[in-house]
Every structure is written in structure tokens, then in C-alpha cells.
Specification:
Helix content is 63%, strand content 8%. Strands 1-3-2 form a three-stranded antiparallel beta sheet. It has a three-stranded antiparallel beta sheet with strand order 4-6-5. Strand 5 and strand 6 form a beta hairpin. The longest helix has 34 residues. One of its GO terms (biological process) is cytoplasmic translational initiation. Belongs to the CSN7/EIF3M family. CSN7 subfamily. This is PCI domain-containing protein. It comes from Cyberlindnera jadinii (strain ATCC 18201 / CBS 1600 / BCRC 20928 / JCM 3617 / NBRC 0987 / NRRL Y-1542).
């Protein structure tokens, strides 16, 4: 005996509407006739004496199976109505048993029907349909709470985004990946999705890409040395990633990565330019990019605590010709790592604010940090004592 699911009048209308749309674009009534065979009407007394009898509809579980298998008919719906109709199908499926598996089947079948063998940049019609499917997948991702279904859906979205060559569509998922996927299911399949996302967004959002790589290492168990080494190399080779202290500061990464890469990164962060250029770069590291970044870090070191710097001093410290210092300073300001004013007449740079400080924390620093926290803790105790005194006075009055 098949199981049944009771659907109220409004939802029953959804089933009828979905069937009618599929019939319309199929040019026959086969689907609605098929669905009607799974429905039975039954009289049901309402609790209110003032209301008349209402009709309820019982659907056998076969209804939801039929909708899950309706992708070939759904794919015939025109582009203008497709997204709404597909979302209607997802909504109906959410009401039945085994909804996760059935929704997955529906959207998987829809994708397979698109015949996506190459990028669709020049195929406007296919592009519209794929964008609609991505929107439907987004709805599924945000509506269903199953980590397994969300992983499948995100993997499908990645596939379609790659075909469309439009990584901007991934932004909502990038911002939610840590709180949604990683919080629920941290396994190798999640790591693959996170790393694939990182790869796709690398050109448009290099720092976001690095963040995802970092999460794949630190939030998912059993990362490999290869992953750790690749992350460090990618961090070094990303022009906008200047502060890499979190790279060598991570216990997971420092325990996995090669000593050669860790030592090189440490030298990049904490030695000035004239000393750093003596360091031997590991394989795959882009020395031009890393050297330029180290020049910026050197500028920040010499600017810290100074009101002004001469072009001559800057040129000497960062290894540039004086003629190139002005453009170097302009780029540093654009990177928002330092604020100041360039004086072309006097060939000086007035330092307003150093906005990025990369400093190696020594034992003396930890002592100072501990003292600061202790003072802060004592201050909070004093504040609490004052509050208690005031409350005691009020209670006596």
C-alpha cells in the first residue's frame, strides 16, 4: 500500500497549476491525467460549526515521484516562465517524503538536459536557461537544511558558473560558505567544493580565494602537505596579499608545510628588502611579485614612527631609483597600507598613518600584552565595584 500525503486546498492548487503549465507546453494533457490518478478527495468536517464541509485531497507518494521525474517536460517551458515553474516544482516536492533526494533528481536531470559541452558566452538562449537553473539551485540551497543536498547543489552551481564563465554569480555562496557548509559537514567532498570555488574566483577576488583555501586547510580535517604548500605559494604570489603572518601563525599550516617555504615566508615578512633579496626563493614562487611586496613591507617598517621620509631614504631602503619612488608611493597609497602626502618640490613623503603593521611578536611583546590585558581586567573589576555600590545605595533608599 502506497503512503499518502495530505495537501491543503492552496497547495492542491499548486499541483494543478504545475500540471496545467506542463500540459500547455507539452501540447497534451498526459501529465495532468497522470497526476490526477494519484489524488483522491475526501470530505472533512471543519472544527467550526459555522463553516461548511471542506474538501481535502489525499495524494499518494507517487505524485512526488512523478514531479521529481518531470524534468523533460519542465525543460520545455519557455524562458520567461521557466524559473517560476521550476521553483513551484521544488516547493511541491518539499512537502513530500524523501524531498531532498527528489529535489536533487529534478535539478540534476534539468542540468543534464542542457547539453553543456562548452562555454555558452555566445549562446544567448542557453545562457538564459542556465541562469534560471542557477537561480532555482540558489533557492534550493537557501531553503533546504540538508548539508548533503547543499553540497550537491553548490557543486552543480560551480559547474554551471564555469560554463557561463561568470564567477560573480558565486559571491553570495562565497560569503556564506563558512557558516553554512563548513559548520555542518567538514569532509573531503566539502574541501573539493571549497577549493573549486577558490579556483574559480581567483582572478576576480584573489583575497577571497585565499580565504577559502585557508578554510579548506584549517576547518576540514586531514589536510595534506601539498595543500599547505600550495596555499603558501599562492599567498606569496598574490600581489594584494601583503600580510601573511596568519600563514605562518597557523599551527595546522606550520606543522604541514615545508620548512623551506615557511622560512622564506618568515624572511619575506620580517626582514628588510636588502636582506630579503638574498633569500633563495622556493620553486613556483614568483620572485618579482614577492620582491615588490617586500618593498612595500619595508616602506611600512621605515615609516612607522616617522613624520616624513626623503625620496633618497626610501630609494635606499627599498632598492629603487629615486626617479621611481613617487610612483611606488602612489601605488602604496592605492593599496591602502599607508596614508601620507607626496611633496614633489622637496622630494619627501609626509607620513600621516601606517595602516598595516606586520611585526614579529617576541617574548617581550607577549609580556606587554599580558600586562595590558591584566590592567584591562582590573579596570573592569573596578567598574563592577562602582556599579554594585550605586545599586546598593539605591536599594537602601
Amino acid at each position: 500500500m502506497t503512503s499518502t500525503a495530505a495537501v491543503d486546498g492552496t497547495l492542491h492548487e499548486c499541483v494543478l497549476e504545475y500540471s496545467a503549465v506542463l500540459d500547455h507546453f507539452a501540447g497534451n494533457k498526459e501529465f495532468s491525467e497522470k497526476v490526477s490518478a494519484y489524488a483522491t478527495e475526501t470530505a472533512q468536517d471543519d472544527q467550526s460549526d459555522e463553516e461548511e464541509e471542506q474538501e481535502a485531497v489525499l495524494y499518494s507518494d507517487d505524485l512526488f515521484g512523478a514531479i521529481a521525474e518531470s524534468a523533460p517536460l519542465l525543460n520545455k517551458v519557455n524562458d520567461r516562465e521557466f524559473e517560476d515553474v521550476a521553483n513551484l516544482a521544488v516547493y511541491i516536492l518539499s512537502l513530500g517524503d524523501d524531498s531532498d533526494a527528489r529535489v536533487e533528481k529534478l535539478v540534476t536531470d534539468l542540468i543534464s538536459l542542457q547539453d553543456l559541452q562548452e562555454k555558452l558566452v555566445k549562446n544567448k538562449k542557453k545562457t538564459i536557461k542556465v541562469l534560471s537553473i542557477i537561480s532555482v539551485l540558489s533557492n534550493v540551497f537557501n531553503t533546504f537544511d540538508s548539508a548533503s543536498l547543499q553540497k550537491t547543489v553548490l557543486a552543480q552551481i560551480l559547474q554551471l558558473v564555469e560554463v557561463l564563465d561568470n564567477v560573480s554569480l558565486l559571491q553570495p555562496f562565497v560569503s556564506n560558505i563558512e557558516t553554512i557548509l563548513l559548520a555542518k559537514s567538514s569532509d573531503e567532498s566539502v574541501r573539493e567544493i571549497v577549493l573549486k570555488t577558490a579556483q574559480l574566483i581567483q582572478s576576480e577576488d584573489p583575497l577571497g580565494s585565499l580565504k577559502l583555501q585557508y578554510l579548506s586547510l584549517t576547518k576540514i580535517e586531514a589536510p595534506t602537505q601539498e595543500l599547505a604548500n600550495n596555499y603558501i605559494v599562492n599567498s606569496l604570489n598574490t600581489p594584494s596579499a601583503l600580510d601573511l603572518s596568519s600563514v605562518i601563525g597557523s599551527e595546522v599550516i606550520s606543522n604541514l608545510a615545508s620548512k623551506e617555504l615557511l622560512d622564506y615566508t618568515n624572511a619575506y615578512l620580517y626582514t628588510k628588502h636588502d636582506e630579503f633579496i638574498q633569500s633563495k626563493a622556493p620553486q613556483s614562487v614568483d620572485t618579482d611579485i614577492v620582491t615588490k611586496k617586500n618593498q612595500y613591507l619595508t616602506l611600512l617598517q621605515i615609516a612607522s614612527g616617522r613624520e616624513s621620509l626623503s625620496y633618497k631614504t626610501i630609494a635606499s631602503e627599498v632598492g629603487l631609483e629615486e626617479a621611481d619612488v613617487e610612483l611606488f608611493l602612489i601605488n602604496a597609497i592605492k593599496l591602502k597600507i599607508i596614508e601620507g602626502k607626496i611633496s614633489q618640490l622637496e622630494n619627501t613623503f609626509l607620513v600621516y598613518k601606517v595602516k598595516l603593521v606586520v611585526k614579529k611578536i617576541e617574548s617581550s611583546d607577549w609580556k606587554q600584552i599580558k600586562e595590558t590585558l591584566t590592567n584591562y581586567k582590573n579596570s573592569l573589576k573596578e567598574v563592577k565595584q562602582l556599579i554594585d555600590q550605586v545599586q546598593n545605595r539605591r536599594s537602601k533608599n
